[in-house]
């Protein structure tokens, strides 16, 4: 996921300290997390289909299926830039991305698309990068410091319009098709089983107040402190709720990514309008819905949070939470990112015994 646009100081992001919020307490004690495996690298996405659990590990390029003994059996491997995975019956869809230099976050993306696996084992590729080149849905939006009275208004680096930049991040099944949260294009796209692409919603820029820390990191003069920087929305998680409601999490691009500017939105599929349901999140990268609860993985927050009744509260203390999914029986699954503290891991949260399907479907 390309999350930053350092317009004034290259490499500044790496020098910044992350802000860690979350002090609210949960309304009721959730079940303790049960660890299944601790051999994951970058589990960007989970798919819980009944008792079948799939893990999209972008660090290894493997979609694996969890086994009852905690092992993970590869289903598809060798996927470049693997991100989201979703299922719909015997269908599967997953994202892939190719960049010039995969080791660099800001490396130009050459290809990004959705791979749709049919029940017969064929794969249809929907080229979202080509679609972005043709449409650039956020091309009319202005990012950066847009105030003409700002002391940096004359600097051509201070503002820019939406760039041609597709990066498939997460995917979910939706009414016989698929919805994609594209973190580069700042859009939600619909993809049919035949690979036809359309734009569902364009996420507006996110206002972030420039602090002294942000100004210093971006190489801005002190007079810019207090100005508003409009960051790219960067949709990350996407899920469908009761009645077909569409929910999206956003992790704003730099400098929003180093603040608590993350949010959850509900998207109107007819108009594309987005209504904010929650804000103040720390790098939300995934969400899942079960009944009236929305579970959110916050990479730099307290772990997995839950949004219910308009309030966000902690659900599971899993630092580095990267992805979350829910099964039809209400089981909550979550995976963490590998870090200096150790490899990534997969957990389940459920009051009873959790069953896992061992039969591998390829």
Automatic annotation (TrEMBL):
Keywords assigned:
Signal
Where is the secretion signal located? Answer: 1-26
Query: Is the keyword Signal assigned to this protein?
Result: yes
Source organism, top-level taxon: Bacteria
Stated name of the protein: ScyD/ScyE family protein
Q: Which organism is it from?
A: Microbacterium bandirmense
């Amino acid at each position: 996921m390309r999350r930053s646009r350092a317009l004034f100081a290259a490499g500044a992001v790496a020098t910044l300290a992350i802000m860690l919020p979350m002090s609210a307490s949960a309304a009721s004690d959730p079940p303790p997390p049960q660890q299944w495996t601790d051999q994951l690298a970058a589990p960007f996405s989970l798919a819980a289909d009944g008792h079948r659990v799939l893990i999209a590990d972008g660090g290894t390029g493997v979609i694996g299926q969890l086994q009852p003994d905690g092992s993970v059996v590869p289903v598809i491997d060798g996927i470049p830039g693997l991100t989201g995975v979703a299922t719909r019956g015997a269908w599967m869809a997953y994202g892939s991305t190719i960049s010039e230099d995969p080791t660099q976050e800001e490396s130009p993306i050459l290809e990004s698309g959705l791979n749709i696996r049919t029940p017969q084992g064929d794969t249809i590729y929907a080229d979202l990068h080509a679609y972005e080149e043709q449409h650039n849905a956020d091309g009319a939006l202005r990012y950066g410091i847009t105030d003409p009275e700002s002391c940096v208004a004359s600097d051509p680096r201070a503002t820019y319009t939406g760039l041609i930049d597709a990066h498939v991040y997460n995917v979910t099944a939706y009414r016989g098709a698929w919805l994609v949260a594209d973190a580069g294009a700042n859009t939600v796209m619909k993809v049919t089983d035949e690979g036809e692409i359309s734009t569902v919603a364009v996420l507006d820029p996110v206002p972030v107040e420039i602090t002294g820390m942000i100004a210093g990191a971006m190489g801005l003069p002190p007079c810019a402190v207090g100005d508003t920087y409009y960051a790219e929305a960067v949709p990350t998680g996407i899920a469908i709720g009761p009645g077909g409601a569409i929910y999206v999490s956003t992790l704003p691009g730099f400098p929003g990514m180093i603040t608590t500017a993350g949010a959850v939105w509900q998207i109107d599929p007819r108009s594309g309008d987005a209504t904010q349901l929650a804000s103040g999140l720390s790098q939300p990268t995934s969400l899942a819905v079960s009944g009236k609860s929305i579970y959110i993985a916050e990479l730099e927050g307290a772990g997995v949070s839950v949004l219910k009744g308009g309030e966000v509260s902690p659900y599971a203390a899993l630092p580095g939470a990267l992805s979350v999914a829910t099964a039809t029986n209400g089981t909550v699954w979550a995976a963490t990112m590998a870090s200096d503290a150790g490899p990534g891991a997969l957990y389940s949260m459920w009051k009873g015994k959790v069953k896992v399907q061992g039969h591998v479907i390829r």
